[in-house]
Specification:
With 785 residues, the chain is an alpha/beta fold. The strands form six sheets. It has a six-stranded mixed β-sheet, sandwiched between helices. It has 22 helices and 23 strands. The chain is flat. The two termini are 47 Å apart. 52% of the residues lie in helices and 15% in strands. A hairpin with a 5-residue loop joins strand 3 and strand 4. The chain has five domains: 149 residues, Orthogonal Bundle (MutS, DNA mismatch repair protein, Chain A, domain 3); 103 residues, Orthogonal Bundle (MutS, DNA mismatch repair protein, Chain A, domain 3); 217 residues, P-loop containing nucleotide triphosphate hydrolases (Rossmann fold); 58 residues; 79 residues, Ribosomal Protein S8, Chain: A, domain 1, CATH 3.30.1370.
Length: 785
């Protein structure tokens, strides 16, 4: 991707924001080097890893990045065999611990959705638990080695502690003896040796070694001769402690060096994961989605927003290109949003091609372009003596020479800066040349000649930015298929220009031209509505297909879990029967032994009775084991909505939610689960009619008392989704039309999870964030069908 497009479309600002979500300088360096990928596989793979990172954040909370550092310098020293400092070793241990914890963080149960890309990345992590433990056991802090680092160090420090205690006692005794000769009744340290502050005139009264004197010379710091040997012993122990610490650090550094390949590999993976989760958090902050990506030049951005504009004021736009037309000519008033539209399309493509999620609606589609060329803004150069027109034309010449069918070209005010007639002619020629090369083009212009070119040329479409004549302000909405109108007459009337002047101006324009423009606008408004309906229908179809595949996969997993549970139960039953048989055989054997020892006939008779009871019990257990899978109860002839029935496969009562479909299946509620089962698998519930009446009455009473809101604060994402799903079912059955979901403001992760669930929930008609007085962004107001 050319650097000019990245600069003009402000991708560097996106990267600066992205850096704010990283933990290490190494991840920031990865962000600095981030550029759009040049093949479809890489783009989809990196988008998927970003999506998986967001799923993990929602379901499992923050990843295990606690205490990680950029240890590239430490790894480099370890690789060369240097002895590392305690703080450096601790940083390496922290990175190793984080990498090891990641393997547990990404694991999932069989029935849960997998995180394939991130799991593959974490598969290469090589746990170094032994090295971690060695470092943590030996090092307490940045500058402190633990007594447990070695038995030698422990013994040295114990001796040192004892020696210090002895010498302090000795010093205190000397202070009392030499009190008249001392400046103060205390001792101090000089060069790690205990000394006394002696008055200079009493030097001869305290025999010993002079180590220092005060700045005034009035005090001499003398080590009494009786302390010399003790101080020497302490000094020796200190040197031994230092040598032992150096040995320990050398040994730990040696172990790091031995495993340096694994350490470097794990560290690189952690920094890559730091980068991935930064992308995910950035996407969450934008409420972004993972777009579909194709290589066919087809673009369909739904409700796309410019990520650098304040979310409170940005107006989403719908842009599509590449199927019915390959060139889009946008006209409209100044400050109407034409340039922002160009930058939005270009920047969202660069973000998606760099593996970043984009702020748009689900099912938006972007294309993989080998190059994006942007001629936007005033490129006047004083140094090169180029005018605005000349600088633009220099850039356009480069674009014409380089662009091909795999390129997206963005022109802002094409042909501006020179004579309007010549500029318009040049603009048409440039667009036509690039169109013939099948280049995808979006161009803005004020020239009416380009409207006519778009109307009569196949593969070129008009578009405009909407202008509200009532308020004399742009709405910033993009209308594809409708050329922009100058609205000069309406605007002039609003501003107070006399009607007779406006009427005279209208008379100077051929009435056929005015009627033709109005007719074209009317036809194209109908055409654009039909195209919008077709796009929405296609998106709904794709979404329905995705939901179908997702729930079929969930049902398969549920059936698999149920089958495994049945198999385990059968296996456990057979094991119990086998153990009971073996125990019974042993008992019978013991009984026969007792009989041989000679008991009376009465005792033998009682033993025979016990034997018979045991035999009957075994036969009963075997019969129950054989009938474990047999169906119970009478088959249902006709199912009724809300009826409670028995499902043998789950061995529990369920509630019928739907009528049978063309495959003979109904949806039933089993606890918090909703599953599809065949009617022939259902049986009449064993509950009495009285129990059913009580149950129905309880259901009615519960439905009447359903609250109009649910509070999710304090829950994790998964728990909140289950609670909300159950609550919406109850609210729907209770006939509530509007409910409030309270999720709090926080980091926004819980709100994101709930909104994603609401997008696909069958009972939800629409939803929005709360307004002032309703709870603001801390609540979501849901309208039910």
């Amino acid at each position: 991707m050319n650097d000019r497009a990245l600069r003009v479309l402000e991708f560097n600002k996106i990267k600066e924001i992205l850096k704010g979500f990283t933990h290490t300088q190494a991840a920031k360096d990865i962000v600095d080097n981030l550029k759009p990928y040049n093949n479809l596989y890489e783009v989809r793979e990196h988008l998927q890893e970003t999506k998986e990172g967001l799923m993990l954040l929602v379901k499992k909370g923050s990843p295990p990045f606690e205490g990680i550092y950029d240890v590239r310098e430490e790894i480099g020293k370890g690789e060369k065999g240097f002895v590392l400092l305690p703080g450096q070793l601790l940083k390496i241990a922290n990175v190793m611990r984080s990498s090891r914890k990641f393997k547990d963080y990404v694991t999932h149960k069989d029935e849960e959705e997998a995180y394939k890309v991130i799991e593959d990345i974490c598969e290469s992590i090589y746990p170094l638990k032994a090295l971690e433990d060695n470092i943590y056991n030996a090092i307490i802090g940045e500058e402190e080695i633990s007594d447990r680092a070695s038995s030698t160090l422990y013994n040295i420090r114990k001796s040192l502690k004892d020696k210090n205690a002895s010498i302090r006692d000795k010093v205190n005794s000397l202070i009392r003896s030499y009190a008249p000769y001392l400046q103060e009744s205390l001792y101090t340290m000089r060069g790690e040796r205990y000394v006394l502050p002696v008055k200079a005139e009493n030097k001869s009264s305290v025999p010993g070694l002079v180590h220092d004197q005060s700045s005034s010379g009035a005090t001499l710091f003398i080590e009494p001769m009786s302390l010399v040997n003790l101080n020497n012993e302490i000094k020796e122990l200190i040197l031994k402690e230092k040598a032992e610490i150096e040995r320990i650090l050398k040994e730990l550094s040696s172990k790091v060096c031995e495993n340096i390949a694994y350490v470097k590999n794990n560290a690189n993976i952690i920094w890559e994961l730091d980068f991935i989760f930064a992308k995910s958090k950035f996407g969450s902050s934008l409420n972004a989605i993972c777009p579909h990506v194709n290589e066919d030049g087809f673009v369909d951005i739904v409700q796309g927003k410019h990520p650098l504009i304040d979310p409170k004021v940005v107006v989403p736009i719908d842009v599509y290109l590449g199927r019915d037309f390959t060139s889009l000519v946008i006209t409209g008033p100044n400050t109407g949003g034409k340039t922002v539209t160009l930058k939005t399309v270009g920047l969202l493509h660069i973000m998606a091609m760099s593996g970043l999620m984009i702020p748009a609606r689900e099912n938006s589609t972007v294309s993989l372009f080998k190059e994006i060329y942007a001629d936007i803004g005033d490129e006047q150069s004083i140094e090169q003596s180029l005018s605005t027109f000349s600088s633009h034309m220099t850039n356009i010449v480069n674009i014409i020479g380089s662009a091909d069918s795999k390129s997206l070209v963005l022109f802002d005010e094409l042909g501006a800066g020179t004579d309007p007639t010549e500029g318009a002619a040049l603009a048409v020629s440039i667009l036509e040349h690039l169109r013939k090369k099948d280049v995808k083009i979006i161009a803005t212009t004020h020239y009416s000649e380009l409207k006519g070119y778009a109307l009569k040329t196949e593969g070129v479409e008009n578009a405009s930015v909407e202008f509200d004549v009532e308020t004399l302000k742009p709405t910033y909405r993009l209308l594809i298929g409708i050329p922009g109108k100058s609205n000069a007459f309406e605007i002039s009337r609003r501003l107070g220009l006399p009607d007779f002047i406006i009427e005279e101006a209208k008379e100077s324009i051929a009435s056929e031209s005015l009627k033709f423009e109005d007719l074209i606008q009317s036809l194209q408004e109908k055409s654009i509505k039909a195209a919008e309906d077709a796009r929405k229908s296609e998106m709904l179809k794709n979404e329905a297909q995705k939901l179908k595949e997702k729930y079929e996969e969930k049902l398969y997993g549920l059936n698999k879990v149920r089958e495994n549970a049945l198999i385990d139960a059968q296996r456990e039953g057979k094991r119990l029967v086998k153990e009971a048989k073996e125990e019974a055989d042993n008992i019978l054997k013991n009984i026969r032994e007792l009989e041989r020892m000679g008991y009376s006939s009465d005792v033998r008779h009682k033993l025979e009775e016990e034997r018979k009871k045991l035999k009957d019990k075994l036969e009963k257990i075997e019969t129950q084991g054989e009938n474990l899978e047999k169906e119970k109860g009478e088959k249902i002839k006709e199912v009724k909505l809300g009826e409670e029935v028995y499902l043998p496969k789950l061995n529990q009562n369920v509630i019928v939610l739907t009528k049978p479909d063309n495959r003979g299946e109904v949806q039933v509620q089993a606890g918090i689960m909703k599953i599809n089962v065949k009617v022939e698998d259902l049986r009449i519930s064993q509950r009495s009619a009285k129990d059913k009446k009580v149950a129905r009455r309880e259901v009615r009473l519960n439905l009447k008392s359903v609250s109009t809101s649910i509070d999710l604060r304090g829950m994790d994402s998964e728990e909140a989704i289950y609670a909300t799903d159950k609550y919406l079912d109850e609210a729907y059955m209770a006939g509530l039309s509007k409910v409030t979901v309270i999720h709090g403001k926080g980091t926004g992760i819980l709100r994101k999870a709930i909104n994603d669930m609401l997008k696909r929930h069958s009972h939800v008609k629409s939803y929005r964030l709360g307004e002032y007085g309703e709870g603001g962004t801390g609540v979501t107001v849901v309208e039910l069908k």
